[in-house]
Design brief:
- With 757 residues, the protein is an alpha+beta fold.
- It contains 21 helices and 21 strands.
- The strands form six sheets. Strands 3-4-2-12-18-15-17-16 form an eight-stranded antiparallel β-sheet.
- Helix 8 packs parallel to helix 10, helix 10 runs parallel beside helix 12 and helix 17 runs antiparallel to helix 18.
- It is elongated and about 115 Å long.
- It starts with a helix and ends in a 14-residue tail after the last strand.
Length: 757
């Protein structure tokens, strides 16, 4: 019986969804907060140190410091800055879209401890004597920039000026200092230096008693310097000393180009996925296009709702999240196609296929969620943003790719208008009759000639050779560690015209930043990349940016990491990988058995090691986003492995009891052949996106994308040729040792029957 009302309901639901998205998508996109790598800006990690001996850095002190930093940032008009306390003695500041990065960075870390002293460095007044908001930029009678101060107590200032005046010339000077260091600074030493190198702000002669609250500070100021000086005084002094241990600064043009390139690459990749799903899976593919569009929209909605910041790796995570959502659709579509080939009707095949695929989908995505959670916990900055987006993507894929797809597909299937298996890419000639008693285990596949179990020793040999060769390669070439792990400074210079390596080297030498390791990159050779072993000081960063901007017309991007942070990142990366592996093996052991968990971890280590070796051979830079890529591959690889193990377990259950190794080998081979099509299709869809990111995306995520590509290829190999074979070998050893057979294991089903429409 055909039910037109189901079709009408489907059309109305889809029309309602796309109308809602179409009318609000512009606002949603406008509300997305872009990270500094997409709009320019800077990020800095400060280590908080005590100003005085005996001062303890408590959470209360850190909170007071963040409040003072926030006050200063407000002076620069930055919208929604990010200031976070990390651990017991660190504060991370992110300012995206800031026009005047140099001034902000210079003034943020200044303790702004204003003091008025005599020539003997005795303190006479300090910042507490300044009226709140009492500093302002101004001009003197000669139209020279000055800073005016309003003090709280005129009588106290009169007393101070009386004391200084009585010291007589040439010692009757009121010296104004900002961040005077006791035991280090002195007027006697600083006065010997040229005016432009002196640390004190000004030194004015006092020839009369001044009974006033109005004070003028003059010096060799520029207009901008008086504005910044006044702003930081009004914001208040910091209760601690801030030492910069990590920083990254991205020029606005770099951010804009990165955003445009990566969004374009993502759109191209997603459109190719849509085309593949439609042509190969037909009706399920059409449904997946609808739900994937809704999925992407919902990711942005949730992203905005939690006030998250979208970074370059975050965009990659959204695109890769689409790939994972596709996997859920492919899993279901493949199971439906199997049931159709067995001889079931479209309605029964849809019901059975949806139910049977649910367990594999949930198991696979939960293990990926575990890897993403570990990455979030140990990640920093953009990597944490990547993990956040990936977690959101995984959770929302349950709503759209699992539940939403099945509701919409159920409307069409149960309408009675799509009873022809051709709608699912299956011709009637490939269908059996239910009377034949054929099960999905008996169905032929495109891979029936492949004997995976019989060739397992060859697979072991290949992997062993890779392991030995990899150890040799790493011993000879080692890893090309980026500044994230080795400390130092990484610089990118952008030009409107093609750059020549030797010319850039000569220019760097000319301005005092000599570097022989200059790499020219970019589509039009307009980007120069170089690394310095030493981390730049704050002043060096400011000087470098000013000179390069003047020469090339674009502010360069700089990342500086101290040795402390580099070692810490490396340690956290190892913790992350170890914890992810431990969590996965425990989960797989509970849901399946410990031998499968061990096989999964062996295949994961195989993948990770292979990626590391390839990066060593190609001399690609290993940075913190590389760790994000590795953990993402851990998620994808375990996803593939779980689907394979789920099918092995299901086929064992159908046999109730397996007594011989030959029978077990047949089950494993059949299971691998049955899941091979799904694995290839899933990986291909994600590879399409990754290749688009490599060739069309921003250069800053190119290594990230290359690591993903390598991992995806090795992941499918290890899931089939390593993980399953390790389990088979361990199972055979158990059968030999204990003389036992493999019996059906009752598995707990996730959830209940599928949504009924």
């Amino acid at each position: 019986m055909k039910l037109a009302n189901r079709i009408i309901t489907f059309v109305l639901v889809v029309a309602l969804l796309f109308t809602g998205m179409g009318t609000t998508v512009e606002k949603v996109l406008n509300d997305v907060k872009l990270g500094l790598d997409l709009q320019g800006g800077f990020e800095v990690l400060y280590e908080v140190e005590a100003l005085d001996q005996g001062q303890k850095i408590t959470q209360s002190v850190l909170a007071d410091t963040t409040k003072a930093l926030d006050n200063r940032i407000n002076e620069f008009g930055v919208s929604e800055p990010s200031i976070e306390i990390e651990g017991e003695d660190r504060i991370r500041v992110q300012l995206a879209g800031l026009a005047d990065q140099d001034s902000a960075r210079e003034l943020l870390s200044s303790t702004a401890n204003l003091t008025f002293r005599d020539v003997n460095d005795n303190i006479l007044l300090d910042g507490t004597d300044l009226k709140e908001g009492g500093a302002a930029p101004s001009f003197d009678q000669q139209n020279q920039p000055i800073v005016t101060l309003t003090l709280k107590d005129a009588a106290k200032f009169a007393e101070v000026t009386q004391k200084v005046m009585s010291m007589g010339a040439p010692n009757n000077l009121l010296v104004v200092w900002l961040d005077f260091e006791e035991g280090v600074d002195s007027y006697a030493e600083e006065s010997k230096k040229p005016p432009e190198e002196q640390k004190f702000v000004s030194a004015a002669s006092v020839t009369q008693v001044l009974n006033t609250t109005d004070v003028m500070i003059s010096g060799s100021f520029t207009v901008d310097e008086t504005k910044n000086f006044a702003s930081i005084l009004n914001a208040g002094s910091l209760p601690v000393k801030l030492t910069e241990i990590y920083s990254t600064s991205v020029g606005a043009q770099f951010g804009e180009d990165a955003l445009n390139d990566t969004v374009f690459a993502g759109v191209v990749g997603v459109l190719l996925i849509f085309l593949f799903m439609l042509l190969y899976y037909r009706l399920p593919g059409f449904i997946s296009i609808i739900t994937l569009s809704v999925f992407t929209y919902l990711v942005l909605i949730v992203f905005n709702g939690i006030n998250a910041v979208l970074t370059l790796p975050g965009i990659a995570a959204i695109v890769l999240g689409i790939g994972m959502a596709v996997d859920a659709n492919i899993l279901t579509a493949e199971r439906i196609r199997e049931e159709l080939r067995v001889g079931h009707s479209v309605k029964d095949a849809f019901k059975l296929g949806s139910k049977q695929s649910l367990s594999a989908i949930i198991d696979a995505q939960l293990t990926t969620l575990l890897a993403a959670a570990v990455l979030f916990y140990y990640g920093t900055s953009s990597v944490k943003g990547f993990a956040t987006t990936l977690i959101i993507s995984i959770l929302l894929s349950f709503v759209t790719a699992v539940w939403g797809s099945r509701v919409l597909q159920g409307l069409l299937v149960n309408s009675g208008y799509f009873n022809n298996p051709a709608w699912f890419g299956i011709s009637r000639s490939k269908q059996h009759s239910l009377d034949e008693g054929i099960t999905s285990l008996d169905l032929s596949t495109k891979f029936d000639k492949l004997d995976f179990v019989g060739n397992r020793k060859k697979f072991y040999a290949i992997s062993t050779i890779i392991l030995v060769a990899g150890i040799v390669v790493l011993g000879v070439f080692k890893l090309n560690l980026g500044i994230d792990f080795s400390s130092g400074t990484r610089v990118e210079i952008k030009s409107d015209t093609a750059l020549v390596q030797e010319e850039v080297k000569d220019y760097l030498n000319e301005i005092g930043f000599a570097n022989e390791d200059v790499v020219i990159s970019g589509d039009n050779q307009t980007i120069a990349v170089m690394r310095y072993k030493d981390d730049f000081s704050q002043q060096q960063v400011l000087d470098f940016k000013e000179q390069v901007n003047e020469k090339y017309g674009h502010e360069p991007s700089l990342s500086t990491v101290s040795d402390t942070v580099g070692k810490e990142l490396a340690k956290n990366a190892m913790y992350a990988l170890a914890l992810a592996a431990l969590g996965i093996i425990i989960y797989v052991a509970i849901r399946f058995e410990w031998r499968m968990g061990l096989g999964a971890i062996v295949s994961l280590l195989h993948d990770v090691f292979f990626i590391i070796v390839i990066f060593s051979i190609l001399r690609l830079e290993v940075d913190i986003t590389f760790i994000a890529a590795v953990l993402t591959i851990v998620g994808y690889s375990i996803n593939d492995t779980i689907v394979t193990f789920d099918r092995i377990r299901e086929n064992i259950d159908r046999h109730e009891k397996i007594t011989t190794k030959e029978e077990l080998a047949l089950i494993v081979n059949k299971s691998l052949r049955q899941t091979m099509g799904r694995s290839v299709n899933t990986v291909l869809t994600v590879i399409v996106v990754v290749i688009a990111l490599i060739f069309l995306g921003a250069p800053s995520i190119q290594n990230f994308s290359i690591a993903l590509l390598i991992g995806l290829v090795t992941g499918i190999y290890s899931s089939i040729c390593i993980a399953a074979q390790v389990w088979y070998s361990l199972k055979c050893r158990e059968m030999d040792k204990k003389g036992t057979s493999v019996v059906k294991k009752e598995k707990k089903q996730w959830g209940s029957d599928e949504p009924q429409v």
